[in-house]
Amino acid sequence: xxxxxxxxxxxxxxxxxxxxxxxxxxxxxxxxxxxxxxxxxxxxxxxxxxxxxxxxxxxxxxxxxxxxxxxxxxxxxxxxxxxxxxxxxxxxxxxxxxxxxxxxxxxxxxxxxxxxxxxxxxxxxxxxxxxxxxxxxxxxxxxxxxxxxxxxxxxxxxxxxxxxxxxxxxxxxxxxxxxxxxxxxxxxxxxxx
Length: 193
Description:
By secondary structure, the chain is an all-alpha fold. The chain is built from eight helices and no strands. The chain has helices at residues 3-26, 29-36, 40-46, 50-73, 79-103, 113-139, 149-169, 181-192. The protein starts with a helix and ends with a helix.
């Protein structure tokens, strides 16, 4: 990987940390540059504005998440094990980035149409990957044949994210990870019986 590629990723990782600490509006490009160990001008060599950097940071995070998703779906394990691993990875991501999500005070009207469309497309790509996992599980007889993936996949993430977010918001979890196993066990009954 080139030096330029590494520096861009350094800036993106630094922006994740600083946006999480300070929120969008209270973050200065100087803060991100300092965290990345570079000058402010270098940030602007890669990103034309703070909102552009924010958008690219979101896309960067989504790609990291998607690669883990693909790795899990392609793993040689049962459907139930894949489902649990997906849930655990999702919960770990939520634990790692919960503060960022809580502090991101960007209004919807500030986000570009390009970002909105890209986020919808990325979500669709991830759902398609998981849909392939369901198709394979149906062929193997691991899940019910009458499942509607368009309902099951968002329901899975909705239940999982709702459960974990509630635990974090209530301050019930002292450790930095909410175990999603209860949600997965509940959903398995609906999917596999």
